[in-house]
Amino acid sequence: MDMKSIALKVFDYLKSYLKSLNWIVLLGIAAFCIALAVINNIRVEDSKSVDWIGSQEILAKPDEVL
Fold first, then answer.
1. Highest mean pLDDT of the ranges 18-22, 26-30, 38-42
2. What are the E-state strand segments in the chain?
3. What backbone phi and psi angles, to 5 degrees, belong to 57?
C-alpha cells in the first residue's frame, strides 16, 4: 500500500464517522455548557469571576524591554 491509498482510506473512515454523529445532540450539549458557564460567571463574586475575551485590563508597556 502506498501513502496515498492509506490517506484516502483514513479520510473515508473519518468522513463516515463524522456522518454517524448526531450533530443536533452535540450542538445542544455545547449550548448547554456555554449557558452554564455564563450563568456561573454571573453568579459568583467578582474575585472568582472569569475575565472574558476583551474584558481584561490592558497593562502599560514597560519603558525598557530586555
1. 26-30
2. none
3. -70, 135
Residues 12 and 29: their CA atoms lie apart, in Å, by: 27
| Inter-residue contact 49 to 41 (CB < 8 Å) | yes
Nearest to 39 by CA among 50, 47, 53: 50
d(CA 38, CA 52): 10
Q: Please report, for residues 38, 61, 62, the alpha-carbon distance to residue 66 in angstroms, rounded to integers and kept in the order given.
A: 39, 12, 10
Longest dimension (CA), the chain: 60
Q: Tell me what the pLDDT averaged over the chain comes to.
A: 85
Mean per-residue pLDDT, 46-59? 72
First to last CA, the chain: 54
Euclidean distance between CA atoms 60 and 17, whole angstroms: 49
